[in-house]
């Protein structure tokens, strides 16, 4: 029994290794998304993100410069240029026909017939010569090149430069902040009443709220919008605040009530003996003590509202004045989708604010997650 | 002196006019190929009125539709808000059910408009519009029929106005690859099959086919089958098939599915082999045309696919298309499969009615034609306004069609056309027999009734 204190069991190492393995496993998809957000569309469809950091050998096609770039050198007409516009990489083979794109080694001269010949050097520069002047479209040059890894920030420039993104950011804030604060306010009062005020039917009410947790919000979309239209709220911010508050309340009340009921009875009773009213007890004792639970719910609600697209498209209009960020990012994907690079980049752009919120409040989150679980 | 003053006033008026027209992409009255007379004739005063339009177009497509709307605004003084949504199908249902519909909805398929009309959410456009379409659209009666549905009271009416058409019977290819290999564009289905075999014999892969499309995986195959239906059986049979008078299990339908399978289930014919077809995304599939060496030589897809070609591809030079040909021996003419967007009136108002009237003017078609991605069956437009020769060539395919049929899966009930038919085609691609697939789809359809 003397190995209990002092030396560590080898099991600890197994646990640590397992945890590290799981964390790495969990992070891989996000990391892949991050790498993809720095690659362009053609790269994404050509190879996996794990190939982004290695030199790749690929067969590519370039087109020789236009006929109007030709220069006359003696009795030869010449079009010169490079197939590697970024100047990086090494050409190993080239060809002039799609039938045989690797016909010649770099540096050799290919004869295209009719007095036309082409040579491509290893650094990518090519020289197309002809005994007569070039006309019409220039020929294609097929080449095999080894190119170093290439990452681009173009996707970020495109997403951040998107029309209306700034406005949409403000719209999202306009939706998110009240939609986080309102349910917390209401839920805190309700939770106190359900935890510490005696009235008939209290247990039933709690059971009812727990029951509401399992109602999917999609069920309520049409009836709720109908109600808003009848009340004359229509598609305004007040409507979406109410909707988000309503959808968030059951969880908020449940979480806060369970936390508050775990606070020591003695404090509250002695306050009562001292003559404090319910409101004073709530304000001076319960609220400060419940801060971890409030903070953790605030994080949940903020993240949910921030990422929401469905509720926003239903309860807000689609015009520039009301479009939220998720809506603008969706528009970037175009009518038929398929722009993966924009999708990956958008994810990282929109993740930024929630990350700030999360790190600012995370020390409360851990405590809050245990809310109501221990007395 | 007086003359000078007048000239000054005239110049001022011109400047003012120019300022007014600056958000119009083509200045009214300037380019003679546009039908400006129809624009002038349409002018009316609706200032102060506002309408909203909800449609499926986003991004560049949204800019294009807004460029057309600008002319309506300039001609009437009314304000139009166009909103695009990629979940249009869900949003229009929620908005109409909840009682906050837009004024006009742009349906990507007529099937959804039919559903909303049956619930009483669409306004009948009236017999005058039906007559107008009949007289002014090529194959006018078929466009009227496609948008005529029973309303809530059970009486049939015209609930949609087709504007913007896509042609689906196209095969895309890289002309220079054809030149390198010495291939000719086939004029008949027999030639196309011979070419397919020739490419295989030369050691190449003829086709790129991709069915992947997230939740809609399988739809590209339904287009193939529809095209094959039109090439192996009569248009009347096609119509009966769409309304299920002709069962899926009918020999004609099974034969069409097998015609498609002859291309897609042959490992030598498709890039990545038959097993790869179902998992390749339809948006990535055409990229094989541009690979070095080419992964495939041909790709059958609708007129929208160039947006998924590699950046900088010039249509007509780097890539081109030909009509997906018909069998010479079957004598079914030159059938063309297409699709189109339908404008429906979700809330009646003078300005919304005026907008539908606006869509009848040639200028509303020509403005979009002069840009990109727009085809129209309107007979009164000047085809010279097509923005590039490619569109004109597609327009010619549309006009030369002896038979035009609408995408059948868009007309079938949602559970089939956007469900069982899609998944059935994925099963078929996976190796299930055509007869069994057809029987499964038919079973689903029977269960609906």
UniProtKB/TrEMBL annotation, chain A:
One of its GO terms (cellular component) is plasma membrane. It holds the Pfam family BPD_transp_1. It is a multi-pass membrane protein. It comes from the Bacteria. The chain crosses the membrane at residues 12-35, 175-197, 203-225, 237-256, 281-306, 340-361. Keywords: Cell membrane, Membrane, Transmembrane, Transmembrane helix, Transport. It is found in: Cell membrane. Residues 169-361 form the ABC transmembrane type-1 domain. The keyword Cell inner membrane does not apply. The keyword Membrane applies. GO terms for biological process: transmembrane transport. Gene3D superfamilies: MetI-like (1.10.3720.10). InterPro entries: MetI-like, MetI-like_sf. Its main location: membrane. PANTHER family: ABC TRANSPORTER PERMEASE PROTEIN MG189-RELATED-RELATED (PTHR43744), OSMOPROTECTIVE COMPOUNDS UPTAKE PERMEASE PROTEIN GGTD (PTHR43744:SF4). Belongs to the binding-protein-dependent transport system permease family. This is Carbohydrate ABC transporter permease. It comes from Aliigemmobacter aestuarii.
TrEMBL record, chain B:
Coiled coil: none annotated. GO terms for cellular component: periplasmic space. It comes from the Bacteria. Keywords: Signal, Transport. Belongs to the bacterial solute-binding protein 1 family. Residues 1-21 form the signal peptide. It is found in: Periplasm. InterPro entries: Bact_solute-bd_prot1, SBP. This is Carbohydrate ABC transporter substrate-binding protein. It comes from Aliigemmobacter aestuarii. PANTHER family: ARABINOSE-BINDING PROTEIN-RELATED, OSMOPROTECTIVE COMPOUNDS-BINDING PROTEIN GGTB.
């Amino acid at each position: 029994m003397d190995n209990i204190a002092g030396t560590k069991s080898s099991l600890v190492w197994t646990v640590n290794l397992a945890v590290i393995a799981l964390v790495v496993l969990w992070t891989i998809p996000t990391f892949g998304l991050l790498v993809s957000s720095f690659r362009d569309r053609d790269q994404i469809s050509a190879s996996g993100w794990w190939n982004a950091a290695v030199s790749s050998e690929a067969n590519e096609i370039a087109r020789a410069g236009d006929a109007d770039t030709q220069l006359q050198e003696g009795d030869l007409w010449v079009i010169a240029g490079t197939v590697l516009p970024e100047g990086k990489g090494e050409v190993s083979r080239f060809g002039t026909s799609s039938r045989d794109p690797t016909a010649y080694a770099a540096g050799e001269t290919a004869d295209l017939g009719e007095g036309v010949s082409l040579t491509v050097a290893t650094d990518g520069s090519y020289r197309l010569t002809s005994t007569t002047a070039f006309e019409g479209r220039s020929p294609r040059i097929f080449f095999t090149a080894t190119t170093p890894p290439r990452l681009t920030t173009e996707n970020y420039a495109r997403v951040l430069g998107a029309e209306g993104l700034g406005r949409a950011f403000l719209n999202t804030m306009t939706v998110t902040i009240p939609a986080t604060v309102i349910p917390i306010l209401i839920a805190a009062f309700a939770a106190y009443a359900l935890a510490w005020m005696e009235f008939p039917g209290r247990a039933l009410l709690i059971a009812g709220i727990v029951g509401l947790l399992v109602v999917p919000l999609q069920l309520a979309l049409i009836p709720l919008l109908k109600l808003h239209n009848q009340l004359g709220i229509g598609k305004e911010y007040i409507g979406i605040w109410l909707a988000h508050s309503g959808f968030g309340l059951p969880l908020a009340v449940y979480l806060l009530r369970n936390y508050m009921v775990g606070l020591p009875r003695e404090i509250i009773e002695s306050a009562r003996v001292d003559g404090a009213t319910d409101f004073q007890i709530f304000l001076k004792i319960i609220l400060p003590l419940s801060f971890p639970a409030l903070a953790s719910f605030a994080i949940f609600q903020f993240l949910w509202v921030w990422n929401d697209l469905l509720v926003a498209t239903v309860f807000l209009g689609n015009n520039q004045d009301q479009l939220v960020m998720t809506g603008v990012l969706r528009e970037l994907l175009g009518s038929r989708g398929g722009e993966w690079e924009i999708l990956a980049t958008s994810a990282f752009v929109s993740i930024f604010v929630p990350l700030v919120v999360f790190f600012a409040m995370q020390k409360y989150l851990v405590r809050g997650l245990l809310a109501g679980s221990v007395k | 002196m007086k003359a000078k003053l007048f000239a000054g006033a005239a110049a001022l008026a011109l400047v003012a006019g120019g300022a007014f027209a600056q958000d119009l992409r083509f200045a009214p009255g300037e380019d003679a190929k546009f039908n400006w007379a129809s624009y002038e004739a349409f002018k009316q005063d609706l200032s102060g009125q506002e309408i909203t339009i909800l449609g499926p177009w986003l991004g560049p497509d949204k800019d294009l539709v807004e460029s057309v709307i600008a002319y309506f605004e300039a001609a009437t003084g009314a304000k139009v808000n166009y909103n695009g949504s990629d979940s249009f199908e869900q949003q229009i249902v929620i908005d109409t059910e909840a009682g906050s519909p837009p004024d006009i909805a742009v349906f990507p398929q007529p099937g959804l408009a039919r559903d909303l009309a049956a619930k009483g959410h669409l306004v009948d456009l009236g017999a005058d519009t039906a007559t107008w379409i009949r007289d002014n659209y090529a194959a006018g009666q078929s466009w009227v029929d496609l948008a005529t549905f029973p309303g809530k009271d059970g009486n049939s009416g015209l609930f949609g106005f087709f504007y913007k058409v896509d042609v689906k019977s196209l095969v895309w290819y890289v002309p220079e690859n054809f030149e390198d290999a010495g291939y000719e564009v086939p004029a008949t289905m027999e030639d196309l099959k011979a070419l397919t075999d020739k490419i295989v014999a030369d050691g190449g892969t003829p086709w790129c086919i991709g069915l992947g499309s997230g939740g809609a995986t399988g739809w590209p195959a339904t287009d193939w089958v529809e095209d094959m239906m039109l090439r192996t059986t009569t248009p009347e049979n096609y119509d009966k098939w769409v309304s299920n008078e002709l069962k899926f299990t009918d020999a004609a339908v099974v034969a069409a599915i097998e015609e498609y399978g002859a291309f897609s289930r042959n490992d030598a014919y498709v890039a990545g082999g038959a097993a790869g077809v179902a998992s390749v995304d339809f948006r990535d599939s055409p990229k094989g045309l541009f690979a070095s060496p080419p992964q495939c030589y041909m790709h059958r897809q609708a007129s929208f696919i160039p947006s998924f070609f590699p950046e900088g591809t010039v249509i007509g030079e780097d890539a081109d298309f030909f009509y997906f040909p018909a069998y010479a021996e079957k004598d079914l003419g030159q059938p063309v499969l297409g699709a189109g967007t339908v404008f429906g009136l979700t809330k009646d108002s003078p300005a919304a009615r005026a907008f539908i009237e606006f869509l009848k003017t040639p200028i509303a078609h020509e403005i979009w034609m002069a840009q990109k991605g727009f085809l129209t069956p309107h007979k009164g437009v000047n085809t010279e306004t097509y923005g590039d020769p490619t569109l004109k060539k597609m327009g010619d395919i549309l006009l030369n069609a002896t038979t035009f049929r609408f995408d059948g899966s868009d007309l079938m009930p949602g559970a089939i056309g956007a469900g069982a038919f899609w998944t059935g085609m994925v099963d078929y691609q996976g190796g299930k027999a055509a007869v069994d697939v057809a029987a499964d789809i038919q079973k689903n359809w029977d269960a609906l009734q």
